[in-house]
Amino acid sequence: MDVLEDPESTAIVARARHQDRAAFTALVSPRLKRWLRIASAILGNETDALDALQGTLVAIWSTLPGLRDASRFDGWSTRILVNESRRVLRRRVRTRVHEISLNSSLGSAQATGHSEPDDVANVDNRAALEGAFERLDVDARALLVLHHIEDLSVVAIAETLGIPEGTVKSRLFTARGALARALAEEIPS
Predict the structure, then answer these.
(1) For residue 158, which of 175, 149, 170 has the smallest C-alpha distance?
(2) Is 82:161 a contact under the CB 8 Å cutoff?
(3) Long-range pairs for 7-10 at CB < 8 Å and ≥24 separation?
(4) Quick check: 128 and 187 in contact, CB under 8 A?
(5) Alpha-carbon distance 167 to 47, whole Å?
(6) What is the spatial distance between Cα 57 and Cα 62, in angstroms, rounded to a whole number?
(7) DSSP of 52-118
(8) Residue 108 pLDDT grade (very low, low, confident, very high; cuts 50, 70, 90)
(9) What residues contact 187, with CB distance under 8 A and at least 6 apart?
(10) Which pTM value belongs to this model?
(11) Is the pLDDT assigned to residue 98 strictly greater than 50?
């Protein structure tokens, strides 16, 4: 996932490095949904995720000529996305806009007029998990998202973030512990 092995893909990166807009579009378009998913998971809402994605695209465009190894584009660009998500999270104001998903269990239960006890429990647990996740720092969020949602290996995360594998393992352990403590605070006893 981190290394582009397809010669055609590395050729597109090479063209995009020389500010070829069509090549840049061909390079980033297939990655947009994945990047938005990662940013949304880290930041907690689509609005901030779109801001991070926009900043990521600008940063990639402006720094792409300096990318030495075209085959490392995926890891390099994901690192830019994580850093941009950190920047958005740091400047986020205290006021939050809570987005409501139309696909949520509660939404469908209210739409049909039926309320299943399991649906309400799932919504409560999801709300508690989201609240606990918001308590984590951006580095912990990024690691948990990359490992558990994006299903990247420890080795891939280490390459993406430019840190040693042992550090990834240690930080994942710490992030999981922090999430468990935050979740315990979110769920009333």
Answers:
(1) 170
(2) yes
(3) 9/73, 10/70, 10/71
(4) yes
(5) 31
(6) 9
(7) HHHHHHHHHHHHGGG-S-GGGHHHHHHHHHHHHHHHHHHH--S--PPP--TTSHHHHHHHHT---HH
(8) very low
(9) 128
(10) 0.69
(11) no
